[in-house]
């Protein structure tokens, strides 16, 4: 299978200048590979660095050393050394990320937040598909035109998911996509992840819900806590 | 992705007496990109904006702008009329205080239309139509076209300034604290407006703000300034979520979250 994402000796530590310059190592020489159509789950205890790893893959955290290569326009691009502009392009076209929390944009209606993540289609088509995806995720039509600032946590998470899946990026990073969802919605998200895999999308996710994890993941990658250094 | 920058600055230095306002500052901006300059008051961010836009000359260093015909022009070596022409057409400048840009004794429609007339447009009917269309874009009702700006609220004045700035379809807009001094609800509306206009019209922008949330919402890249130096620069979300420099860590950790 085509390798879509790989890391090589990826290490990350946080240097906290305001706390007397203490250094907290989180990732140490992580090697992983994810192929097209495959779902890999990051497993490990809370605080082990799963989210740090996922955020580093997206370029949201800056890797300390090592490489993160993603297949972008047919070539492997190293997120660690790529220019910020290239990372923006990679995120536009190749690398999708669904965080745990929706960062709401004031005044923008839910359906537009989802529709603007669409690529390669007209605005009308994007709005139509965004509305269909929201409906599938049980967001009632009367809420589509409202900005999601006042929505419940579960509703906001579903808006966030719809936005993440809307981009149909070849690589999708999911941080706890089902954390605040009820069973019915959880099953829909599982179905959406399986469909994404079917269409060849490579998925890397953190799933605390073991039922969800067993349903979608092909493999586990264990992230273990490192000894804190002084 | 084009490699040609729209605006590039190298080695900018400027001192006001003993105060170093810019120390060896480099900056690049590509077409369609929004760059935020953040830092506390007195860090040199507004000075940098003024030097990048040719309003203040640096003591050393150069600012290059790529004209629509592809030529690189040295912004600080241009004759004054050419620079003024650039500011009237290809560039826009949004001031923190809209009164610095608007003509308070001229109607709202006149304020927008004046920029078109400065470009040589003379058909008053079409100028008025375009002015009304732009008032609509910035959510000012067409019925206010003949009202004087002094009857407008602070948020409306700022939106009017944006209409006046964008009516000439600039490729590059400089913004100095565009949401400063406005109520948060008005700020949200303005931010959403700037965000959608910049995206839709594919405008490049250099945005000075002390508000990190504004930078996060609008900018692709960010530069953090302290005492005239750029201490950190990069992807906006990376710099704000994983700041490396002690000053950026202080800045990010000092933000109150509501």
Structure description:
The complex is a heterodimer of chains A (230) and B (258). In chain A, helix 4 packs across helix 6. In chain A, the strands form two sheets. In chain A, strands 6-7-8-3-9 form a five-stranded parallel sheet, sandwiched between helices. A four-stranded antiparallel sheet of chain A has the order 2-1-4-5, with helices on one face. Chain A has 230 residues and is an alpha/beta fold. The longest helix of chain A has 16 residues. Chain A is built from eight helices and nine strands. Chain B is α/β, with parallel strands linked by helices and 258 residues long. Chain B folds into two domains: 179 residues, Rossmann fold (3-Layer(aba) Sandwich); 74 residues, no CATH class. Chain B has nine helices and ten strands. A six-stranded mixed sheet of chain B has the order 6-7-8-3-9-10, sandwiched between helices. Chain B has a four-stranded antiparallel sheet with strand order 2-1-4-5, covered by helices on one side. In chain B, helix 3 crosses helix 4 and helix 5 runs parallel beside helix 6. The radius of gyration of chain B is 18 Å and the shape is globular. Chain B starts with 6 loop residues before the first strand and ends in a 5-residue tail after the last helix. At the A-B interface, strand 1 and helix 2 of A face helix 6, helix 8 and helix 9 of B.
